């Protein structure tokens, strides 16, 4: 197990513990998470973990917050790096960034584990809600731009279609990281893009 270096200031120490906790959750699973696992990953004592995060749930919430921001940033980069004058390319980039690359995809796996806390934690529920809304916003922008340039002929409002696309990728993504052999990443991508073609009237997707 790799160890996170010991930073000197408190902000960096907290961030190191958040990173170590994310690593521990990925390796052991959320339900089996122990203070010892986080301390080992961070290269500190268990007392140091408890000094900064007396409540383990507070640390897990910070892991969730960081995972959401990191995931959204990667999706925004994928969108921004696709050719600006090609709405279909930008929409494809969003689809690619929203699906796990494999059943062992650590980023998606971590998010799906953390989302399970939403049913019993307002903080986790808020993060899950925020992630969904911001992903919808990304898709809605891509769809609106495509419609404005004449590349897309939308079958419904951009907002409604964006909701459907996010829900589709979330559903397929859950099956992928759950090792459902019937849902392969490549096939999931094909199906989401087929839906996107149907609702945008864009054959080049």
TrEMBL record:
Domain named HTH tetR-type is located at 11-71
Q: What domain of life does the UniProt record list for this protein's source?
A: Bacteria
Tell me the Gene3D superfamilies matching this sequence: Tetracycline Repressor, domain 2
Question: Which SUPFAM superfamilies does its entry note?
Answer: Homeodomain-like (SSF46689), Tetracyclin repressor-like, C-terminal domain (SSF48498)
Annotated DNA-binding ranges come to: 34-53
Q: Give the matching Pfam families.
A: TetR_C_6, TetR_N
For whether the record's keyword set contains Transcription regulation, the answer is: yes
Sorted keywords for this record are:
DNA-binding, Repressor, Transcription, Transcription regulation
The protein, known as? TetR/AcrR family transcriptional regulator
Naturally occurring in which organism (per UniProt): Streptomyces solicavernae
């Amino acid at each position: 197990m790799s160890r996170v270096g010991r930073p000197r200031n408190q902000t960096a120490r907290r961030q190191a513990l958040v990173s170590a906790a994310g690593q521990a959750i990925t390796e052991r699973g959320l339900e089996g998470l122990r203070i010892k696992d986080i301390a080992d990953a961070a290269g500190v004592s268990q007392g140091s973990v408890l000094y900064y995060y007396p409540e383990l749930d507070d640390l897990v919430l910070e892991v969730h917050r960081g995972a959401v921001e990191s995931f959204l940033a990667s999706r925004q980069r994928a969108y921004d790096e696709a050719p600006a004058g090609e709405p279909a390319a930008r929409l494809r980039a969003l689809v690619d960034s929203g699906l796990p690359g494999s059943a062992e995809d650590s980023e998606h796996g971590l998010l799906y584990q953390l989302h399970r806390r939403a049913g019993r934690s307002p903080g986790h529920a808020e993060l899950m809600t925020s992630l969904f809304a911001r992903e919808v916003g990304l898709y809605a922008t891509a769809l609106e731009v495509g419609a404005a340039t004449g590349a897309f002929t939308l079958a419904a409002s951009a907002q409604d279609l964006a909701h459907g696309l996010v829900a589709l990728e979330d559903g397929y993504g859950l099956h992928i990281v759950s090792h459902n052999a019937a849902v392969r990443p490549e096939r999931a991508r094909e199906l989401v893009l087929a839906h996107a073609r149907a609702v945008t009237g864009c054959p080049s997707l």
